[in-house]
Design brief:
- This protein is mainly α.
- The protein has one domain.
- Helix content is 71%, strand content 1%.
- The chain is built from 16 helices and two strands.
- Strands 1-2 form a two-stranded antiparallel ribbon.
- The chain is globular, with a radius of gyration of 22 Å.
- The protein starts with a helix and ends with a helix.
Length: 370
């Protein structure tokens, strides 16, 4: 039993190292948040059922769109439009489920018809997927720089969200239709959906967003690591020109990667919108693209393309969320979590560029010169 595990750890050293780091962070946070007068590890604020549920819910939301961004990064691309696209899709979803009279005083907002919430979910998923496909066509077929394309999306989507919402907050409570089951699916737990409210048990400790993340992770793992498309995605990221000359339509492969990213963003935008209860276009989803990039880079996705894994992206997401939770529980200022995220991205890029052994060589050279 030990040999297969050791072989797996040897083949996935980056993911194994990040998993060890996650374990260390959990231990440090658990021990550092033990309340005075309470003996034992179970007195930790971090290990309370409510906190663990919130952490799992957040990992679910962030992990879903991070998987999409990670797949794009494997193709040597980038997606900077995640946060702004979530704002636009959030506004669009709430417009679809609210009566026109409850929307901001805007002709475009009033012109969107009200539909049932299942149909609204389908429309949001379709819009996000189409916008992702648009990015893919511009990058894969027209050979535009992904940084420029998605930077334009970052500016345009948030600007459109603010324009449609007339720079006002759009609330879930303005909906006239019954959204109780939609709330269970978006902000509830597995027990709420299968059993109902008012019960206790393990199923009521598993947020639905975490369930969605696991399902999506299994599907994308099969696509990325067990299919021909996955091999093409890695090949296009390692050397697009050589892959193209070998007879593979690299433009189509890259377009599919961005399409997946758009779908993942739309998929996470709906439960996040329901979880927050409202959408403020100026701040909704702000900097989410940075968290996605950080999670992917931490998880082993090389910014040069051709490397990465879905389990690694999940581990990277968990590290970022646990770090944020640790900052909050220890009473440090909330903006410090953004500084930590920046530092994490920096360290990840250095490791990606030079590797652990490369860093050792650099420091040894400096020591010799001094």
């Amino acid at each position: 039993m030990a040999n297969p595990l050791l072989r797996y750890a040897g083949r996935h050293r980056r993911e194994t190292g990040m998993l060890g780091l996650l374990f260390i962070l959990v231990v440090i946070t658990s021990l550092g948040t033990i309340e005075e007068g309470i003996d034992g590890l179970f007195g930790s604020k971090f290990l309370t059922p409510d906190n663990l549920k919130n952490v799992a819910r957040t990992i679910g939301i962030y992990g879903i769109f991070s998987i999409g961004v990670g797949i794009v990064i494997i193709t040597a691309g980038i997606d900077l439009s995640v946060g702004s696209l979530m704002a636009l899709l959030g506004v669009f979803f709430l417009f679809l489920v609210t009566p026109p009279g409850m929307r901001p005083d805007s002709a475009l907002a009033r012109g969107i018809p009200e539909v049932s919430w299942p149909m609204a979910v389908l429309w949001v998923l379709l819009l996000g997927t189409l916008l992702g496909l648009l990015h893919g066509v511009l990058v894969g077929k027209l050979k535009l720089q992904p940084f420029v394309v998605t930077l334009c999306g970052l500016l345009s989507y948030r600007g459109l969200a603010r324009f449609y919402a007339n720079d006002t907050t759009v609330n879930v409570g303005d909906a006239s239709q019954d959204l109780s089951f939609a709330r269970k699916l978006g902000d509830g737990t597995l027990g709420d959906v299968l059993i109902g409210h008012g019960e206790k048990g393990i199923l009521h400790s598993v947020p639905m967003t975490f369930v969605y993340l696991i399902i999506l992770a299994v599907i994308t793992t099969i696509i990325l690591h067990r299919s021909v498309l996955g091999r093409y995605i890695f090949a296009a990221g390692r050397n697009e020109l050589a892959t193209k000359y070998s007879g593979i339509n690299t433009g189509l492969v890259i377009a599919i990667a961005y399409l997946i990213a758009g779908f993942c963003t739309a998929f996470s935008a709906i439960p996040f919108c329901i979880y927050t209860g409202s959408v403020q276009p100026t701040s909704h989803g702000a900097f989410f693209e940075l968290y996605a990039i950080a999670a992917a880079v931490l998880g082993g996705c090389s910014l040069r393309g051709g490397e990465g894994s879905i389990p690694g992206i999940l581990i990277g997401t968990a590290i970022l969320i646990v770090l944020r939770n640790m900052v909050n529980l220890l009473g440090y200022p909330t903006p410090l979590s953004d500084a930590i995220t920046g530092g994490v991205i920096f360290v990840g890029v250095i490791i990606d560029q030079h590797g652990a052994t490369g860093l050792k060589k650099i420091f040894k050279r400096k020591a010799r010169t001094t």
